[in-house]
Amino acid sequence: MSKNLNGLMLIKILEAQFGYLLYSKGEIKFSTAKKWIDDEKKYGHGKGDQFEAIFASTFSYDKTSNIAYKNMYSDVETERSGNFIHYRKRSTLLSPATSFYLVDNQNCTCNNVKHVISENYFKDFSNENQKINLIDKTWKSTIYIRYIHEFEKRVLKALVNIGIKEKDVIFSKIHYDARIRDVNYITMKQPPAELFLKDCSLQHQNEWRIVINTHDPDILNYLECTPIRVGSISDISKIEYKVSKNDKEVVYIKK
C-alpha cells in the first residue's frame, strides 16, 4: 500500500468504452515501460516516454562507467542517445505497470480544494482534432477515483487472486528528476525503483503508479493479454464523458 501518500484523488483518461469498464467492472489493463518507450517513437513525447526505466546514464566514452553499469545486473540493455548511453534492466522494462494522475495536497489549498491540472496533461491523452460524439467509441472519458486507499485494497485483492504475491505489488507516486538523462546519473535504489522515476519534462502528468515486480512468465503473459477486474468502483469514483478543451482543467473537491 502507498506510504505517506497525501493524495486526494486519482484521475484516469481512457477511451469511453474502457473508461466505462473501469468504472463499472473495475477493469484495469497493465502496460510496460517497453511499450511506453515505443509509444514515444510512434505518437510523440507525453503519450510515451523515451526515458522510462533508466537506472543509469553516462557519456559513451566513459569506459569505466560503461563496464560497471553493464555488469551491475545480468540482464542489462543499453541504448545510445547522442553522446550518452542509457542503461536499463530487461526485467524492469517488462514489469506490468499502469498509471493514474494524482491530485495531491502539495498542489491544493485547504477546505474546498481547488486543484489546477496542466493543460499539457489533457493534450497528452486527448486528440484535439476529434469531434465529440456520444456514439463514437473513441470518445474520451475521465474517471475520478476519490478513495485511493480503498482502490488500492481492491486492486491488491484482485492481483493476489491471480497468483501474485502481495509483496510484489507496489503502489507509489512518481518522482521527477532532471538528472535521468544526464551524465553519470545512477539510482542506487533496488529495481524496479526506476519505474517510479521520470524526467522533469513530464512533471505535469503528476503520476501515481501500480507496478508488479514479478518475473513469473505465466503472470507476465497473462497480464500482457488480459485486464484484471477489481469489481465496480462506482461507489468510490465518478465518470465524465468529456475532456476539457480549455487552457486548463479545474477540479473541485470537498474534503
Descriptive notes:
The protein has about 260 residues and is α+β, with helices and mostly antiparallel strands. The protein has one domain. The protein has seven helices and 16 strands. A six-stranded antiparallel β-sheet has the order 9-13-6-1-8-15, covered by helices on one side. A four-stranded antiparallel β-sheet has the order 4-5-3-11. Strands 2-14 form a two-stranded antiparallel ribbon. A hairpin with a 2-residue loop joins strand 4 and strand 5.
C-alpha end-to-end distance? 22 Å
How many β-strand runs? 16
User: In percent, how helical is the residue content?
Assistant: 10-25%
Q: Would you identify the regions where 5 or more consecutive residues have pLDDT less than 50? A: 128-137, 244-255
Tell me the fraction of residues in β-strands, as a range: 25-35%
CA-based gyration radius: 19 Å
Strand pairing plus helix content: what structural class?
A: alpha+beta
From N to C, what is the helix and strand string? EHEHEHEEHEEHEHEEEEEHEEE
Average pLDDT level: 84
Largest sheet: 6 strands, antiparallel
Question: Largest beta sheet: what is the strand line-up?
Answer: 9-13-6-1-8-15
Question: Number of helical segments?
Answer: 7
How many structural domains are formed by the residues? 1
The backbone outline, from C-alpha atoms, is globular
